[in-house]
């Protein structure tokens, strides 16, 4: 009976796959969980646009790591559908990220949010592989960081070239990727399966503000960096990752694809763009049009992976396109909170500061507008969304047990 069930399940998944091979993950060895996530994201993309927030589960304007708390939930009563996490400086072997967030606590929240049926996306502001070795004090966004680019260029001091095979820092880079891979392997669900997630490394390549950015390396070197990283992680057995290609603001598809590593490495076409007003609206409208068309042609996911502030105009504009999610950056905790608490008008003073800080991401009013709009999806909106592929994969696992 068990054999019959297994054969039936395999036949069913074969039928599903044969009818949907064009909408499968780029990795032919993708885990069942990764295939489920990809199918689920495709299905949700047709229903609406999910809201995502970086570090939503890790900190807020007035707090640090309080499990269960979320600035998004405080405002609208629900968690974001997408939880973003940052792993910058994990390659250096420390316990905390460049934003002082505990890697161990990130693992706790990744497991919890996955169990809640939320979706996880990860960024990695890796330290500069050249200047991080120089003597002197290192700073999260200064000396030795991803932003430390003053001395770099594609035709002189090229950090990307230095870490590719044959480069002077290649061995160090392999160690970085090994550390990253070992950390990812700790992200397992209650059944011991690797948790699927979206990984967006080397982001905003069209800008020149990161060591992997435009003018800091050649387009081919950037593409090779991507291919090397994806192959390395796959060879480490990490077939649970969906990879998101990403640029900063661009004005043509040709510009967007400079450095594109190839369809076999990419699952999501994404773009980051900060701004507001008529000029911004016109530019992001055109960009979402050509990136969305390319994603559809290549059967990839599509996302506005970083943006702010959210405006009513942007919320209406996004409805024109199939956009998996939009994500706003982290609500950085107030640095002088302990001093503010001593003031007699503490509550009023903090609210004034927070009102200004929220304006950079989105006001309470716009957040509520988004939450009330059925096109925009939060955690409760997606928790029960299951795909046919997910049910079939579950049937296969049951038949094999």
Description:
This protein is α/β, with parallel strands linked by helices and 401 residues long. It has a single domain, classed as Alpha-Beta Barrel (TIM Barrel). It is built from 15 helices and 11 strands. The chain has helices spanning 2-20, 32-47, 71-76, 103-115, 159-163, 170-184, 219-235, 253-256, 278-298, 312-318, 337-340, 346-361, 364-372, 379-382, 388-400, and strands at 49-54, 59-60, 63-64, 82-86, 119-124, 197-201, 241-247, 268-274, 301-308, 325-328, 376-377. Strands 1, 4, 5, 6, 7, 8, 9, 10 and 11 form a 9-stranded parallel β-sheet that branches. Strands 2-3 form a two-stranded antiparallel sheet. Strand 8, helix 9 and strand 9 (301-308) form a beta-alpha-beta unit. Helix 1 (2-20) packs antiparallel against helix 15. The longest helix has 21 residues, at 278-298. The two termini are 12 Å apart. 42% of the residues are buried.
């Amino acid at each position: 009976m068990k054999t019959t069930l297994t054969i039936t399940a395999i036949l069913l998944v074969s039928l599903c796959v044969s009818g949907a091979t064009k909408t499968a993950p780029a990795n032919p060895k993708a885990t069942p969980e990764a295939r489920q996530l990809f199918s689920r994201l495709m299905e949700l993309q047709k229903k609406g646009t999910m809201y995502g927030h970086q570090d939503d589960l890790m900190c807020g304007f007035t707090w640090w790591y309080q499990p269960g708390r979320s600035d998004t939930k405080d405002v609208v009563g629900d968690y974001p559908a997408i939880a973003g996490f940052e792993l910058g400086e994990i390659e250096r072997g420390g316990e905390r990220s460049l934003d002082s967030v505990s890697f161990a606590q990130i693992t706790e929240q990744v497991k919890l949010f996955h169990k809640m049926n939320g979706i996880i996306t990860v960024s990695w502001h890796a330290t500069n592989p050249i200047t991080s070795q120089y003597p002197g004090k290192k700073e999260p966004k200064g000396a030795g960081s991803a932003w430390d680019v003053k001395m770099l260029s594609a035709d002189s001091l090229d950090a990307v070239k230095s870490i590719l095979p044959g480069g002077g820092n290649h061995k160090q880079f392999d160690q970085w990727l090994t550390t990253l891979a070992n950390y990812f392997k700790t992200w397992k669900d209650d059944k011991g399966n690797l948790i699927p997630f979206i990984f967006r490394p080397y982001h905003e390549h069209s800008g020149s503000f990161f060591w992997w950015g435009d003018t800091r390396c050649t387009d081919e070197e950037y593409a090779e960096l991507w291919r090397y990283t994806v192959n390395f992680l796959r060879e480490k057995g990490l077939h649970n990752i969906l990879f998101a290609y990403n640029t900063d603001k661009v004005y043509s598809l040709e510009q967007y694809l400079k450095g594109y590593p190839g369809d076999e490495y990419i699952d999501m076409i994404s773009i980051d763009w900060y701004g507001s007003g008529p000029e911004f609206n016109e530019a992001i409208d055109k960009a979402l049009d050509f990136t969305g068309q390319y994603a559809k042609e290549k059967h990839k996911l599509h996302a506005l992976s970083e943006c702010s502030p959210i405006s009513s105009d942007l919320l209406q504009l996004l409805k024109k396109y199939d956009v998996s999610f939009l994500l706003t950056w982290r609500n950085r905790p107030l640095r002088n909170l302990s001093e503010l608490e001593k003031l007699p008008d503490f509550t009023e003073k903090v609210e004034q500061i927070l009102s200004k800080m929220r304006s950079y991401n989105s006001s309470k009013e716009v957040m509520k507008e988004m939450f009330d709009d059925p096109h925009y999806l939060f955690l409760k909106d997606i928790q029960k969304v299951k795909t046919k592929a997910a049910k079939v994969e579950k049937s296969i696992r049951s038949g094999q047990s």
